[in-house]
Amino acid sequence: MINLKQNQKFKKEYVIDENLTTDHIGIKVLSTPSMIALIEKSSNEFIQKFLDNKHTTVGTFIEFTHEKPLLENDRIIIKGKITTIEGGKIQLDIKVVKKKNKTIISRGKHHRHVVNKDKFINNLKNEK
Known about the structure:
This is Fluoroacetyl-CoA-specific thioesterase-like domain-containing protein. By secondary structure, this protein is of the alpha+beta class. The chain has one domain: Hotdog Thioesterase (Thiol Ester Dehydrase, Chain A, Roll), CATH 3.10.129.10. The protein contains two helices and seven strands; from the N terminus they run E-E-E-H-E-E-E-E-H. It has a five-stranded antiparallel beta sheet with strand order 1-5-6-7-4. Strand 5 and strand 6 form a beta hairpin. 20% of the residues are buried.
């Protein structure tokens, strides 16, 4: 089911477009919810490469700082590292850095759990 190993790393680059920003302070900056969504997306896409088509991962825990603002059109790199694998539970350490000067924008921990897609969907349908 899973062919992922501890200490494996990934990087994913993004450009901050208008859809990822908020302007409630008078200037468009990366919103925290959008940053978290990119972290989850990057983590899931990386882990998915090691799973068969019957499995995927779901996020189960997030704990992140948001240390610096980013403007629209800034580029970021999300850097992740698998720290623990216990059965289907995967823990990652992640940093978000500004590509231009490597300033840390965010850092934290993210947990994902491997699930069988069909079982997951059936369980949700049966809860209705």
